[in-house]
User: What shape does this take?
Amino acid sequence: MTPKSYTDVSDQQVVVFAQEGREDAYRELIKRYERPVFSLIFRMVRDKETAEDLAQETFIKVLNNIDRYRPEFKFSSWLFKIANNITIDHLRRRQLDTISIEGAPDAITAERARATAVTVTSGGESPLEELESRELGAEIEKAIARLRPEYRACIILRHVEDYSYDEIAEIVKLPLGTVKTYIHRARQELREYLEDVR
Amino acid sequence: MIEHDFPEEFVPIAAELQRLPYMSPSRNFADNVIARIDRLQPARAVAPVVASRHLELQQGGRQAVIPRRRMGVVQATGRATAGVALIAAAAFMFFEVDVLTAILAAASTQYAFAIAAVGAQVGTLVLGPETIAYLQAGALQAVVLYITLAVGLFGGYAAIRTAAQIAKRKAA
Assistant: This one.
């Protein structure tokens, strides 16, 4: 059976079509997850070009190994797991864990600073709310950027992507207790960083 | 919405975290990824297969027979004459067969299949196709019978000779 649209098709079913070599299924998986994966990676590396490269690497790795996907796990968990591994490996290589909302610390030119700055889009609030939201959102982005990469991944997966502790432990390949500790510390640090703002 | 497992002070921050927007990669992100998916790439050109003298692979595995080079009439006649002459000479030298018989034997051997084909066609016209088919089937059975007899005779002879040699050695 060939679906005309993948709108109501589950991830697992789309994966089955992808395993049959259907390009439209591959494109559907990319369409569904390019933004979450890119956002997670960007919030960890804070460089658009690097985030795009790493996100591409993630999808290429996942889709080239789609036959090895085990359906007992969520596809998104598998995808985020690979994205996290690739990003952590990159950070270990580059030691790029100090970042700023105005741009990466190594952004020595205006162009480079623009490339590494976060653009926060509005959610349809009033101009004042939008401004406050943008300010708070930007502050939160700043605060996240100051966390350790391991904390960043855990807190984003928990509070942005709504994953359970167990799923996060599976994604970041850490013991459940360690994940809980990381998230607890990340929350504490975020509260401290944002105390002045709020 | 995730369950509250954090202090109340963190609730507004959690709410803001959930409102953090997704960022989009470049427009050609999907195309760039798809371009590097190995299993979606068209099959690479297959290295040409070295063909045998008569066969080669052409366009997607269709097998075709390479046409034989056409042999000229003069060349064919020359080869046939040389072949017949060689066989006749050998027959004359080693088996003391007279030249005329040798030439006829060699010629008939050389052209046995052609003669058989022409004979079958003529026979079909004269006797009818059913009769010829019946004769051909009978001929085939006769050939099989002769081959079986020949193998049996040679096998039996070889076995008797081997047994005799063994007995002779033991007696010695």
Chain B has six helices and two strands. The radius of gyration of chain B is 41 Å.
